[in-house]
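Data deposition worksheet. Section B asks for the primary sequence of the deposited chain exactly as it was used as input, without tags or linkers unless they were present during the calculation. Section C holds the resulting structure in token form. Section D is free text for depositor observations; keep each observation to a single sentence. Incomplete worksheets are returned to the depositor.
Section A, Depositor: J.P.
Section B:
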Amino acid sequence: MQIPFFRALEDSQRILIAGCGGGFDIVSGLPLYVFLRDAGKSVYLANLSFARVDLASRKKIGPAGRLVDSDSRMQGYFPERHLVDWLAARGCEPKVFAFEKTGVRPLRQSYEALVTLLKVDTIILVDGGTDSLMKGDEASLGTIEEDALSIAAVHQLEGVRKFLVCLGFGVDLYHGVCHHSFLENTAELIRSGGYLGCVSVSSGTPEGDALLDAVDFLNERQPNSKSIVANSIASAIRGGFGNRHDTERTRGTELFINALMALYWCYDLAAVARGMGFYEAIAGSERFHEVENAIRIHHAHAEKRDWKSLPL
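Section C:
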């Protein structure tokens, strides 16, 4: 059986896979990168960055985008630059496009410039975790600000297919996300036609093994900045279960690593954007702090849903 998401990509030829929440989110897109390249598509990688990409690269794309390649200056925390080396070691084109954390308008303009440069016909935003599905009335929103910034910016683009994919169901409990609300939001998207199915990332496949190899590579390159989300997902793909810790950053907390973390949840991006209660408040923003403030104010005044544990 083929899920609707992959049927929707059949006519796509030039695809940009972009991490929407910053940090290691782009790593969660690597299984798709491998799969779509093997299917004969031209595939490019991008990421909302937590690094000072303006200092690392002079190769500017739009007001907030930069090309990260082997010429880019290394920094203390710079997963995009390390990913360039990982791509080179695998014989792939060693470049990643990185976006600064700005407001929605300059990020949209940077995406537009990149779409024009690469002649992209499809954008897949990838979230490591599931807080990108938060609408604004949940008990807690996790770390939604960066995700919301990317979703709003890409939603405003014209002439390209747009999707959102989440990997790491359950990971964001560590960041305060109520997964009962995530499943409730997904149910609403099923009813509206915005849900495009689930598929598992498995070890022993080119797609799953690429993610595992990249996580190991980045852990070695940045041993003091191991991603909680990426390592939890990798642990689940390897068969880890329960209160397992693959980074010292989570010591003293209780995790629940399990096979559900290895599922891709796929959505029509426009349907997700329409459900964000704060979309209009951030749509014209110029700076990232405007996005943060608008979401904070919306959440403070929203009639919030109760926190509910999953009855499993």
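Section D:
The chain has a mean pLDDT of 95.
Residues 278 and 295 are 6 Å apart (CA to CA).
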